[in-house]
Amino acid sequence: MIQEIAPRRFDNHYQAAAPGPDDYVLHYAANATFRGADANRVRGNGMLAAEVEGRLVLPRLKDYAKAPQTVYLFSIDEERFFLAVDVLVEAREPFQYLSISSCRFFMPRYLAFAAVTGFQLWDWRQHNRYCGVCATPLVHAPRSRELVCPACGNIVYPRINIGVIVAIVDGERLLLTKYAGRPIKHYALVAGYTEVGETLEECCRREIMEEVGLHVKDLTYVTNQPWSFTDTLLVGYFARLDGPVDLKVDHGELKLAEWIERRDLPKEHEDTSSMTNWMIELFAKGEDPFSRQR
């Protein structure tokens, strides 16, 4: 998964620091122009980076024509990462804007993880420029990461959405889905965000009933994952079907849902970043919690 960068160590303890020439300084832009997967030019959230011989290269302070204003983000081992908060920057060759989603495939993995985690903090700042109480411009706290209002004292912390992903098992079959109305075409699992007042397990059961009309039992936690592409902390469960097998698919949410035999599932995916693919592979290899109980 994208956060698995061991033996490297991610440290998000905030420092009131300024970058040196060799520190990474990340920059992002909304509506940036870059080359899409189909080789056409597309627009979207972009990161300033380069791809050199298939490897991701992120800019350091010395790569900017003029030093931008920065705020400290985090470190990985001894390497420090900062965010360029200027709207416009000028970086030297070979840097250009690349798609954020490409971080799902880039090597080295620790730099891909750093890039998408930095994007989450940039996006949070972009959507919290003014105080929601009194409309005063927010400022960065002097010794910590949050944004604060200098007029009324309102504090705004980075946004983290809590979501669940559930692998529903019926013997040797796993329920796979595809989203409706999205560019994502690959298989997924039943998933959704927690609502006010519900536990993670209640969220699992509600999302399953809403999306595919099934009852489940033996909800079993397996792992969790920070997914900075959508400001999310994902929590993964396996569950057994409990009752009728007939699906009642919400086609407003899903293009399709279907049972797939274990023998027909891939044991490896090209995209090794997502917890969804990891959970599908776990079942395909017979390493899921229910297979281990047999």
Describe the structure in your own words.
This protein has 294 residues and is of the alpha+beta class. The protein has four helices and 17 strands. It has helices spanning 109-126, 200-212, 275-284, 289-292, and strands at residues 10-11, 24-26, 28-35, 41-52, 55-57, 70-76, 79-84, 96-99, 139-140, 147-148, 155-156, 161-170, 173-179, 190-193, 216-227, 232-241, 254-261. Strands 12, 13, 14, 15, 16 and 17 form a six-stranded mixed β-sheet that branches. A four-stranded mixed β-sheet has the order 1-6-7-2, with helices on one face. The model has no long low-confidence stretch (mean pLDDT 92).
In short:
By secondary structure, the chain is α+β, with helices and mostly antiparallel strands. It has four helices and 17 strands. Strands 12, 13, 14, 15, 16 and 17 form a six-stranded mixed beta sheet that branches. A four-stranded mixed beta sheet has the order 1-6-7-2, with helices on one face.
Rg computed from alpha carbons, rounded to a whole number of angstroms:
21 Å
Report the principal-axis shape.
Answer: globular
SS-based structural class?
A: alpha+beta
SSE string: EEEEEEEEHEEEEEEHEEEHH
Please name the defining characteristics of this protein.
globular; six-stranded mixed sheet; alpha+beta; 4 helices; 17 strands; 294 residues; four-stranded mixed sheet
